[in-house]
């Protein structure tokens, strides 16, 4: 006689510390996302059959929001529990790590993990002895008589972005080979094998065609091909995905808690063994859900403190440093971007700098600059590195950035869809200061830098130049393969939020200027 039941797997991923429904651009703002909204959706589903509902936190929870930053830097000593108390209140059964968990160093990560009330599964980040460094590799959890194995995996590409001192002594094993090692073992221990993977998909989910350079950053498509995987939870790319890949139900629930992933597995038991006989995958929107009252109340005191902290005035602006049109600001230099370049050069003693306008939410600076303005415009905890590179390398980097654009009808300038889909990558278009250059989008890729001078003279291929960029870019992040750690000659270990605040303290009045040192044109018009 067979028996049938349903196991429901709910997941969040890439919430980035956005607990309450705000992006902090305005005080007490309300947005259609946030962990409190996701918690309400989770509670609604879980209460229907709590014994058969598994809830997974899939990484990138420790960094991203001003609240998350405040927990690290806002008080005399780091207090990760100011943030993690919210995650503890959701009622997760298990979690894994994201790449951004390392942004503040392994010591802070371990301090934060010690405050969590749910167990971790992480198999491919290893210590010097080759053992899981934040283990165990998997968790076995009973749900209504069904034994579920959750194998935790994290993109192994972290060393290509992260500051070396943040990951010292750690090894990042390939996720596919790690899963191939563990899944057969877990099949013997559990009825259901779930992979919680903080990584995304490297190929089109329908035809398998590569959707990005196959660097190993994302390997979800390959993971779904491993025999014995019953469900695959993904993240990292901030995409909204739900469906089947090679017959395996999979989800990826976007960014900042805007979705909850849901996988339903129909299980049939025969001879005392449960097997998956059917499955479904979907995303549950959170935008209209009422923020979970208990977590909202729990976080109210720290939220008020953070809002007050963000409203601290740091300086004043003479002129206009706002960004009314972020797309236009990438074509014609914005005074805000020139200011960031100025801070970077002052902090490192160079006269060439590169930076990006990371997303389209930042509005630049108004007449008064607050910490809120700094943190909602410069959203990453980047430190700075100085690269000593040749003119040829600089030109290669500019050509890489120039791929952001494409010619549009009637001589207009458009955005290359590869920088928008499947994941927005506006942060991978860099603008430079201290050199003069022209990007002509009408030219073939790789030949778009039609003018490049330094101090009025053409840049020579073998000319050595010191250039300031953020640490992510300096080690080759964003597939800037012309850069690497071997070119770093010095660093500034303060993150950019602090450097900007320090600069404003020393220069309480900043003047909005832009010298238009770069041009983006379409010569076909």
From TrEMBL:
<dbReference type="InterPro" id="IPR006146">
    <property type="entry name" value="5'-Nucleotdase_CS"/>
</dbReference>
<protein>
    <submittedName>
        <fullName>Bifunctional metallophosphatase/5'-nucleotidase</fullName>
    </submittedName>
</protein>
<dbReference type="InterPro" id="IPR004843">
    <property type="entry name" value="Calcineurin-like_PHP"/>
</dbReference>
<comment type="similarity">
    <text>Belongs to the 5'-nucleotidase family.</text>
</comment>
<dbReference type="InterPro" id="IPR036907">
    <property type="entry name" value="5'-Nucleotdase_C_sf"/>
</dbReference>
<keyword id="KW-0378">Hydrolase</keyword>
<keyword id="KW-0547">Nucleotide-binding</keyword>
<keyword id="KW-0732">Signal</keyword>
<feature type="domain" description="Calcineurin-like phosphoesterase">
    <location>
        <begin position="8"/>
        <end position="239"/>
    </location>
</feature>
<dbReference type="Pfam" id="PF02872">
    <property type="entry name" value="5_nucleotid_C"/>
</dbReference>
<dbReference type="InterPro" id="IPR029052">
    <property type="entry name" value="Metallo-depent_PP-like"/>
</dbReference>
<feature type="domain" description="5'-Nucleotidase C-terminal">
    <location>
        <begin position="328"/>
        <end position="483"/>
    </location>
</feature>
<dbReference type="InterPro" id="IPR041827">
    <property type="entry name" value="CpdB_N"/>
</dbReference>
<keyword id="KW-0479">Metal-binding</keyword>
<dbReference type="InterPro" id="IPR006179">
    <property type="entry name" value="5_nucleotidase/apyrase"/>
</dbReference>
<dbReference type="Pfam" id="PF00149">
    <property type="entry name" value="Metallophos"/>
</dbReference>
<keyword id="KW-0511">Multifunctional enzyme</keyword>
<dbReference type="InterPro" id="IPR008334">
    <property type="entry name" value="5'-Nucleotdase_C"/>
</dbReference>
């Amino acid at each position: 006689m067979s028996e049938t039941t349903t196991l429901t797997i709910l997941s969040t991923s890439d919430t980035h510390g956005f607990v309450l429904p705000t992006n902090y651009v305005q005080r007490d703002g309300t947005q259609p996302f946030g962990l409190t909204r996701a918690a309400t959706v989770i509670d609604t589903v879980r209460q229907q059959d709590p014994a058969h509902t598994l809830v997974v936190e899939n990484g990138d929870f420790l960094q991203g929001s001003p609240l998350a930053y405040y927990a690290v830097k806002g008080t005399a000593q780091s207090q990760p529990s100011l943030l993690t108390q919210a995650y503890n209140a959701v009622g997760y059964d298990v979690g894994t790590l994201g790449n951004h968990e390392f942004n503040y160093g392994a010591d802070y990560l371990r301090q934060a993990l010690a405050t969590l009330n749910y167990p971790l599964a992480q198999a491919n980040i290893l210590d010097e002895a080759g053992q899981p460094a934040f283990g165990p590799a998997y968790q076995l959890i009973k749900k209504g008589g069904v034994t579920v194995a959750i194998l935790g995996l994290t993109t192994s590409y972290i060393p290509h972005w992260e500051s070396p001192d943040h990951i010292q002594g750690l090894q990042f094993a390939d996720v596919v080979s790690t899963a191939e090692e563990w899944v057969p073992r877990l099949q013997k221990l559990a009825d259901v094998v779930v992979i919680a993977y903080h990584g995304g998909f490297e190929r089109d989910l329908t035809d398998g065609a590569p959707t990005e350079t196959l660097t190993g950053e994302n390997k979800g498509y390959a993971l779904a091909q491993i025999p014995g995987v019953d469900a695959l939870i993904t993240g990292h790319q901030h995409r909204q995905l739900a469906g089947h890949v090679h017959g395996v139900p999979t989800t990826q629930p976007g960014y900042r808690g805007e979705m909850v992933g849901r996988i339903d597995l129909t299980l049939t038991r025969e001879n005392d063994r449960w097997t998956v006989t059917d499955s479904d995958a979907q995303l549950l929107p959170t935008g209209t859900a009422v923020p979970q009252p208990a977590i909202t109340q729990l976080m109210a005191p720290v939220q008020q403190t953070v809002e007050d902290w963000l409203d601290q005035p740091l300086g004043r602006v003479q002129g206009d440093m706002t960004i009314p049109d972020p797309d236009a600001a990438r074509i014609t230099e914005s005074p805000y971007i020139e200011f960031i370049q100025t801070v970077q050069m002052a902090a490192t003693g160079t006269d060439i700098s590169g930076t990006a306008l990371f997303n389209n939410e930042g509005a630049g600076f108004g007449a008064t600059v607050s910490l809120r303005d700094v943190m909602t415009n410069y959203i990453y905890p980047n430190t700075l590195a100085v690269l000593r590179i040749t003119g040829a390398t600089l030109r290669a980097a500019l050509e890489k950035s120039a791929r952001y654009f494409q010619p549009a009808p009637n001589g207009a300038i458009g955005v290359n869809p590869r920088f928008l889909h499947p994941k927005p990558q506006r942060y991978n278009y860099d603008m430079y200061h201290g050199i003069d250059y022209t990007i002509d989008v009408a030219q073939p890729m790789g030949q778009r830098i039609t003018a490049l001078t330094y101090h009025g003279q053409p840049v020579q291929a073998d000319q050595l130049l010191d250039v300031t960029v953020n640490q992510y870019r300096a080690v080759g992040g964003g597939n800037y393969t012309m850069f690497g750690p071997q070119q770093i000659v010095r660093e500034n270990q303060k993150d950019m939020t602090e450097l900007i605040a320090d600069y404003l303290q020393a220069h309480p009045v900043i003047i909005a200027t832009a010298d238009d040192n770069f041009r983006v044109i379409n010569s076909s018009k």
